[in-house]
Amino acid sequence: MEPPHEFAPAVLAPRTRSIAELDELVVHCRACPRLVAWREETALVKRRAFQDQEYWARPIPGFGPPDARLVLVGLAPAAHGGNRTGRIFTGDPSGDLLYASLHRLGLANRPESTWRGDGLRLHGVRITDPVRCAPPENKPTNGERDTCRPWIVREFEEMRPTVRAVVALGGFAWQAVLPVLAAAGWRVPRPKPVFGHGARAVLPAADGGPELHLFGCFHVSPRNTYTGRLTPAMVDDLLHEAATAAGLDPA
């Protein structure tokens, strides 16, 4: 096996000493040629409704305080959502539902997220993705997921002193985050916990520190919400439970 390129996430991520430093490196990543080509092509072609906007067209860093107690893990940025606005779960229906729920629970200062720098702040919550670039058809390959993994592993390593609960939004996030949490210092139960809406697992810390509570939630995508498979009340209830497990005080 060839050693990783000097600009690969596996080389760069472990060198960072803060989430701010990590986020700065993430936005310049070009490790996956297919994803680089797709995110940049999407920014040139654009969706008709956004023809007058300049797309971000780069990888998306996590959003929220670096000392968060609750972390939400998604899949990857949307081509005309985060890839356009420059913030995770921003500018698309999935984000509309998610941030409205966080606001109802007192975990965000406003119910909508429209653009990076719009004044939105999260309280005790950080949101991140295992894949940082928008993939074609919202389907990253396993190789792209694995190439990107060092970014989110390092992110969790930095948050380890404070994070107490994680919500995986969808089956992809659930499967992707289990090896991440193992690499960041928690023990994943055997057999591995199975994803489902409302699924819950407790991961002991490898060093005997505080345990981590992992929750499963159907992804907040239109595919689930427009069909009624996932409702705002279901999201509110699950995030309330996760926030409580994290030691926050949701409304």
UniProtKB/TrEMBL annotation:
Q: Name the UniProt key words of this record, in alphabetical order.
A: 4Fe-4S, DNA damage, DNA repair, Hydrolase, Iron, Iron-sulfur, Metal-binding
Entries under InterPro entries matching the protein: UDG_Type-4/5, UdgB-like, Uracil-DNA_glycosylase-like, Uracil-DNA_glycosylase-like_sf
Q: Which SMART domains match?
A: UDG, UreE_C
Q: Domain Uracil-DNA glycosylase-like, which positions?
A: 61-239
| Presence of the UniProt keyword Transmembrane in the record | no
Cross-referenced SUPFAM superfamilies, in alphabetical order?
Uracil-DNA glycosylase-like (SSF52141)
Write down the PANTHER family for this protein, in alphabetical order.
Answer: TYPE-5 URACIL-DNA GLYCOSYLASE
Give the record's family classification. Answer: Belongs to the uracil-DNA glycosylase (UDG) superfamily. Type 5 (UDGb) family.
This chain belongs to the protein called: Type-5 uracil-DNA glycosylase
